Amino acid sequence: MIDRRKPVPRRQCPDRRKADRRQDPREPFEAPIRFLRSVNGGMEVLSGELMDVSASGIRILLDKALEQGERILVEVRLSSGECFNLSAQVVWVEHQPDRRCLVGCELQVDLTKRQFARLRALAAETSVA
């Protein structure tokens, strides 16, 4: 029999805005990037820093805010001369105290296992250097 005088503890629901819904592992990867965004019918070239990467998304640090839903073309050029072009869509934007923005993007085409393995190897090389 249930004692109705004692309140039943409620389950805590996670804050879905802060929940990590990523399906792929994230790898730290610091590299300068350039990217193209469409502005007023033209293209604007901006730069920033790639913070990490997964097979289906990237997180970048920028001096300029982007809009949620905006599509961008990201160019990651490494000191080895290798270049990766990634088409992405902005999923979230987080303004930082230093007026920069962290931006989470979903890749429009997931990286293949081979591409992701290559990026992971390059990330390990750049973190050691």
Question: Could you walk me through the main structural features you see in this protein, from its secondary elements to its overall organization?
Answer:
The chain is mainly beta and 129 residues long. The protein has a single domain, classed as predicted glycosyltransferase like domains (Thrombin, subunit H, Beta Barrel). Helix content is 12%, strand content 45%. It contains one helix and six strands; from the N terminus they run ββββββα. It has a six-stranded antiparallel β-barrel. It starts with 26 loop residues before the first strand and ends with a helix.
Strand and helix layout:
Blueprint lengths: L26 E13 L2 E12 L3 E6 L8 E7 L5 E13 L5 E7 L5 H16 L1
Antiparallel strand pairs: 1-2, 1-4, 2-3, 3-6, 4-5, 5-6
Number of domains: 1
In the CATH scheme, the class would be: Mainly Beta
Strand content: 35-45%
Shape: globular
CATH H level, superfamily name: predicted glycosyltransferase like domains
Low-confidence stretches: 8-19
CATH topology: Thrombin, subunit H
Placed side by side, the strands forming the largest sheet appear as: 1-2-3-6-5-4
Main sheet attributes: strand count, strand direction, barrel closure:
6 strands, antiparallel, barrel
**Structural class of the helix and strand makeup?**
mainly beta
